[in-house]
Amino acid sequence: xxxxxxxxxxxxxxxxxxxxxxxxxxxxxxxxxxxxxxxxxxxxxxxxxxxxxxxxxxxxxxxxxxxxxxxxxxxxxxxxxxxxxxxxxxxxxxxxxxxxxxxxxxxxxxxxxxxxxxxxxxxxxxxxxxxxxxxxxxxxxxxxxxxxxxxxxxxxxxxxxxxxxxxxxxxxxxxxxxxxxxxxxxxxxxxxxxxxxxxxxxxxxxxxxxxxxxxxxxxxxxxxxxxxxxxxxxxxxxxxxxxxxxxxxxxxxxxxxxxxxxxxxxxxxxxxxxxxxxxxxxxxxxxxxxxxxxxxxxxxxxxxxxxxxxxxxxxxxxxxxxxxxxxxxxxxxxxxxxxxxxxxxxxxxxxxxxxxxxxxxxxxxxxxxxxxxxxxxxxxxxxxxxxxxxxxxxxxxxxxxxxxxxxxxxxxxxxxxxxxxxxxxxx
Amino acid sequence: xxxxxxxxxxxxxxxxxxxxxxxxxxxxxxxxxxxxxxxxxxxxxxxxxxxxxxxxxxxxxxxxxxxxxxxxxxxxxxxxxxxxxxxxxxxxxxxxxxxxxxxxxxxxxxxxxxxxxxxxxxxxxxxxxxxxxxxxxxxxxxxxxxxxxxxxxxxxxxxxxxxxxxxxxxxxxxxxxxxxxxxxxxxxxxxxxxxxxxxxxxxxxxxxxxxxxxxxxxxxxxxxxxxxxxxxxxxxxxxxxxxxxxxxxxxxxx
Lengths: 427, 254
Prior knowledge:
The complex is a heterodimer.
Chain A lengths: L1 E6 L9 E8 L2 E9 L6 H5 L7 H6 L6 H16 L5 H32 L4 H5 L3 H22 L8 E2 L2 E2 L5 H26 L11 E6 L10 E4 L4 E2 L4 H4 E5 L6 E5 L5 E2 L2 H8 L5 H9 L12 H22 L14 E9 L2 E9 L5 E7 L1 H16 L8 H13 L5 H5 L10
Parallel strand pairs in A: 6-11
Antiparallel strand pairs in A: 1-2, 2-3, 4-5, 6-7, 7-8, 9-10, 12-13, 13-14
Helix pairs in contact in A: 4-6, 4-11, 6-7, 7-11, 9-11, 10-11
Chain B lengths: L5 E6 L5 H7 L5 H7 L1 E5 L11 E7 L5 H13 E7 L1 H5 L11 H8 L22 E3 L6 H13 L10 H7 L5 H5 L15 H4 L16 H10 L4 H8 L7 H7 L3
Parallel strand pairs in B: 1-2, 1-3, 3-4, 4-5
Helix pairs in contact in B: 10-12, 11-12
């Protein structure tokens, strides 16, 4: 008996992907997570552009986490030119990243994932029965967006982050205005953890390597080394010696793997697993109250990890706002040629940028690996193990379950398509 | 009760930032979905309602054959077709690749470029008739709301014809070009962003494309007089809207 699970255009993910699984006599014959987003060539057309254009250009890789691409490119370029930034700049970049966590995590939890678990096709359909829940989501998401706009000038493709600082530093008073809103949002974030904890979670655990940045004293976002649950411990400049991609005959997407090992997972769940102790006290407490134990290797708990990070992001933002003095700083620097590397934790997971620039500051080479590119291989591996368990369900239910496996990762396909090496081989 | 007007959101080659701006309308989102039906919106919905649709919002540049087909279908099923954002208006940032031979760009990214079939990046009006252009990278979401309201009322939407310079004056920004010699694209770029970049102490990047009656050549000449080399000037004009004749003229300086 043969069976086919086919999703031609995956919904509630960013970008264009499809899923095609063929099963015969209970055995998977083929399984493809196809990326049909057309190639976008960012690495190709960055060559020949000037270094100070790079943050604005790479921002357009992704409309959902533009600040992550901006700041990562900036850090890589600073690394190339030997620039060390001030504590204030580090703090503002961190706050910018946190604001994007609040926006992006809320978007995913409530608008992209929750409808699956609560039995709706979309958040719009959910709004009729869950109005207060949807209103809470809109409030939280707006707060994240407002905070991004306060620091960056605008929520989608912010403009102020620059090499060696910010073109404009927000006024202290303006940022302080966010403190009350964040304190109020804390309750909403805690409610989010409780809500996500009511989602029915499939019993599914897969032993795979979880990878995230880690640093001894803070919950790593823009700092630290890349570590894993299987002993990886590297700096950004060592990335290419340890993480590589290969083409799979049956897949259109390049598959990321740890050299000498296998596919791996990046994102909120690996971060929470690897850096649990560095979450804010209230985030840890909220996590403990769910009764779910970490480290946890059920990918369906990704939404819960996101919710826990939401609490942490609110707490950390308040802490940074309290600490920041905020003054305009000298952002001048000398242009130097060189090669630079940076790793950060974007909302969806580890993001890698590396550039070679010449003495005139013109880009000669660019290498960018976004979180979804890291995860595609692992999504397929999850599905290989997951699919046999859902074959007895109705076709519709099995399809939904498989889509959920992909949506756990909050994939951002436009991001990954700028680099995906399409393997369209003739058969 | 009459049925709500149906809106479709299509995606070509893009970052999804313009369609995200719809979900970023938090303060009015529930009102919006009371007034219109977001019938086809794959990023937010699992079930789609079939066309025809009153308004089609198309995000992204057209960069491959499949997208041309998809776009023609969109034109067929939508009464009003809107280019949503600078990629759809002009080809946007993806059009930077057009200035280098396609094979060279491909081989920088792909091991096996023979498997790639990417075409010159164009705005959607290269292939189909377009009824309105919402410019910007990303769009200004308030402009989108204004547009939808006008469409529902049968009124002509107000889309700004003037340049970013006008908005700088309105907001009383200090001119970054005059006061600090920052090479700003504001004089030739369509307003509607609230002069965001100059207000944040940086040059306008030209992301909203050419304003009406611009003289890009004259601005390019001014850039040259202020010490920019031809490469710098080319990069400024061949960026978000390099495929427009107006900005291409600016890039054409020797």
